[in-house]
C-alpha cells in the first residue's frame, strides 16, 4: 500500500464520527428524541473531509441523499419528507406517552412533543417547479 492510500488519523476520526452520525440518523427515524437530518448533515460534513468515497455514497444514497442535497442547496425539505417526519414524530411520541408510567412523565413528553413539533413545522418545504 502506498502512502497516498493511507488514511491520516484525522481522516479516521472524521470517518468514524461520520459512521456514528449515520447510525444515529437511522436510529432517529424511529426514536422520538433523535433528529435524523442533523445527524445526516453532520455525517456528510465529516465524510467530506475524511473520505470522498463515503461522502459520495451518502450524497447519492437513494433515501438520504435527496434530504441532504435539498438542505445543503435550498435550506428546505421535500413535502413528502416533511409529511413522513410529522407522522413519525406524532407516532413515536404517542407510543412513548402511552407507555410512560407516571403522569408527570406523560406531561413532560407531551410538552417536549409540542416544542419539537412546532420547530419541525417551521422547516421550509421545497416547492416543485409546477407549484412555482
TrEMBL record:
The chain crosses the membrane at residues 12-34, 107-125. It is found in: Cell inner membrane. Pfam families: DUF454. The keyword Protein transport does not apply. It comes from the Bacteria. InterPro entries: DUF454 (IPR007401). It is a multi-pass membrane protein. Keywords: Cell inner membrane, Cell membrane, Membrane, Transmembrane, Transmembrane helix. This is Inner membrane protein. It comes from Vibrio hippocampi.
Amino acid at each position: 500500500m502506498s502512502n497516498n492510500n493511507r488514511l491520516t488519523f484525522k481522516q479516521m476520526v472524521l470517518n468514524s464520527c461520520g459512521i456514528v452520525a449515520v447510525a444515529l440518523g437511522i436510529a432517529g427515524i424511529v426514536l422520538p428524541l433523535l433528529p435524523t437530518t442533523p445527524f445526516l448533515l453532520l455525517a456528510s460534513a465529516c465524510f467530506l473531509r475524511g473520505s470522498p468515497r463515503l461522502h459520495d455514497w451518502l450524497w447519492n444514497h437513494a433515501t438520504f441523499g435527496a434530504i441532504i442535497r435539498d438542505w445543503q442547496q435550498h435550506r428546505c425539505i421535500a413535502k413528502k419528507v416533511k409529511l413522513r417526519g410529522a407522522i413519525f414524530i406524532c407516532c413515536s411520541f404517542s407510543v412513548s406517552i402511552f407507555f410512560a408510567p407516571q403522569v408527570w412523565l406523560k406531561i413532560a413528553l407531551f410538552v417536549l412533543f409540542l416544542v419539537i413539533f412546532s420547530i419541525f413545522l417551521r422547516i421550509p418545504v421545497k416547492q416543485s417547479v409546477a407549484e412555482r
